[in-house]
Specification:
Elements (H helix, E strand, L loop, with lengths): L3 E4 L9 H16 L3 E4 L13 H12 L22 H13 L3 E4 L3 H13 L22 E4 L6 E6 L3 E6 L7 E3 L7 H11 L4 E5 L6 H10 L6 E5 L2 E2 L17 H7 L3 H9 L14 H7 L10 E2 L2 H13 L3 H14 L8 H11 L8 H10 L7 H7 L4 H14 L5 H15 L4 H12 L7 H8 L1 H15 L1
Parallel strand pairs: 1-2, 8-9, 10-11
Antiparallel strand pairs: 3-4, 4-7, 5-6
Helix pairs in contact: 1-9, 5-6, 8-10, 11-12, 12-18, 15-16, 15-17, 15-19, 16-18, 17-19
């Protein structure tokens, strides 16, 4: 059996972490077993559809690094891939179910349904099921929904590749609507029909869909379609163990937001792949190819996947460290430009800036925060640093360095580095006693990024002023 899996988003919103994981796991499964990955658009909830929902979903799947074999933009012979273009198919199968006695027309109004429900509540009934008011009624010349006639005393059982043996009893499920009065299908009916006609072999999705499965099995069985293999993945929870919610302000929800903040798609792919999947490797930094090679259903977790913000930042940091200078500049420059930083600076200055802060950079937009934290804070020297500067030979070193720096014509990281070395030779200072006094004198800090590049960023004029201020304190 050829592996064929699908990711079926609804364009009622944009691509978020939960949906992205579902798409990613289906993609990995297809690529691991040399199967097909299909993106199918489930857009029958017209009232809630967002104008750019489909475009956003597809654009950010591509940004994450997912490609598909079939979708609305790539016909594989099983289309259309958008449910609103498949309405005739659903209506045909609904009519067939009615003819074969698996379903029936329901003419009840919303008011009649609510009245029946209230009577059940008053009688203290435990199951508030539709009372089959319209079952067996003759056809009427008015709008109708179509309800599936749930079999009596039947057990629906399936072996879930994540959860194992799962069972549902038919008496727990009411006769449910498969076609609305608008002649638009409900989710479970359209989903089951599409899975069958598109020859989906495996359905991998979040465990919040597990209660949909028996309804879909009813449709598949009634129409003599083969059942796919199901796998329901545990939900993603926050660090407090609560289900991931779009209202959770502690977690960035949408993939577009990660793009806008300067996260790298490869890093996000890597991180999301570990939300409920344990590769046979201790290393958490894995390429797409390595993840595909290790991806097996047996390694899908049965426990909730915790969204660890610090782990995400760590993984993205590692990916940023692997960028070359041009790639790092391409990542960070838009954020600097937007903040109006370095408007009159050349490329050398920008490269210095990024190389200075790269070791501390967790995502692209953070470059602005790091810059402002360094350059906008007041220049002060604390007591410990000032005590260090009080050692013998330090003042002479700073005075010598000030003189050489002032005389520099070409002000570059390389010439600054040579000036530091020259000052050390002339004053007999080296190692810690050479670099730390100069660092303190120009930044107020005992530790920090690469000294010549940092000084180049600060600029010659400000460096001289800070040196003069520090020397004055020591005098």
């Amino acid at each position: 059996m050829k592996v064929r899996v699908r990711y079926a988003p609804s364009p009622t919103g944009y691509l978020h972490i939960g949906n992205a994981r579902t798409a990613l796991f289906n993609y990995l499964f297809a690529r691991r077993y040399e199967g097909d990955f299909i993106v199918r658009i489930e857009d029958t909830d017209v009232a809630r559809n967002v104008d750019t929902g489909i475009e956003n979903q597809l654009a950010y799947l591509k940004w994450l690094g997912l490609d598909w074999d079939e979708s609305i933009d790539k016909d594989g012979g099983f289309g259309p891939y958008q449910q609103l273009e498949r309405l005739d198919l659903y209506r045909k199968f609904a009519d067939r179910l009615i003819e074969e006695g698996w379903a029936y027309k329901c003419y009840c109004t919303e008011e009649e349904l609510e009245a029946a429900r209230q009577k059940q509540i008053e009688r203290g009934e435990s199951r508030l099921h539709y009372p089959r008011t319209c079952l067996g009624k003759p056809d009427q010349d008015k709008p109708y929904a179509v309800r599936f006639k749930v079999p009596d005393e039947k057990v629906y059982r399936f072996n879930d590749i994540v959860k194992g043996d799962v069972t549902f009893r038919s008496e727990d499920i009411e006769d449910w609507v498969i076609m609305k009065k608008s002649r638009v299908p409900t989710y479970n009916f359209a989903c089951a029909v599409d899975d069958a006609l598109m020859e989906i072999s495996h359905v991998l999705r979040g465990e919040d869909h597990i209660t949909n499965t028996p309804k879909q099995l009813m449709v598949l069985d009634a129409l003599d379609f083969d059942r796919p293999v199901y796998g329901h993945m545990p939900l993603i929870v926050n660090e407090e163990g609560k289900k991931l919610s779009k209202r959770d302000g502690s977690i960035i929800q949408f993939i577009e937001q990660y793009h806008q903040r300067g996260f790298l798609p490869g890093a996000l792919f890597n991180f999301i792949a570990l939300l409920g999947f344990s590769p046979d490797a201790k290393e958490e930094i894995l390429s797409k190819e390595a993840i595909i090679e290790r991806f097996e259903a047996e390694r899908l977790s049965t426990s909730p996947a915790t969204f660890d913000n610090q782990k995400l930042l760590y993984i993205n940091h590692r990916y940023i460290q692997a960028l070359n200078d041009d790639e790092a500049l391409k990542l960070c420059r838009p954020f600097l430009d937007e903040a109006g930083i370095g408007e009159d600076r050349d490329d050398t200055w920008f490269n210095s800036l990024i190389s200075v802060f790269k070791d501390r950079l967790n995502y692209g937009a953070q470059i602005v925060e790091l810059y402002r934290d360094f350059f906008d804070r007041p220049f002060t020297i604390d007591e410990d640093a000032l005590e260090f500067l009080g050692q013998e030979g330090v003042q002479a070193l700073l005075e010598t360095f000030h003189g050489h720096l002032k005389a520099l014509d070409a002000f570059t990281p390389e010439t600054i580095k040579n000036t530091i070395k020259q000052s050390g030779k002339e004053t007999g200072m080296k190692g810690k006693m050479l670099f730390m006094p100069i660092r303190i004198a120009i930044s107020g800090q005992m530790h920090g990024p690469d000294l010549p590049r940092m000084m180049h960023l600060i600029g010659k004029e400000l460096l001289l002023k800070r040196l003069e201020k520090t020397i004055e304190k020591l005098g």
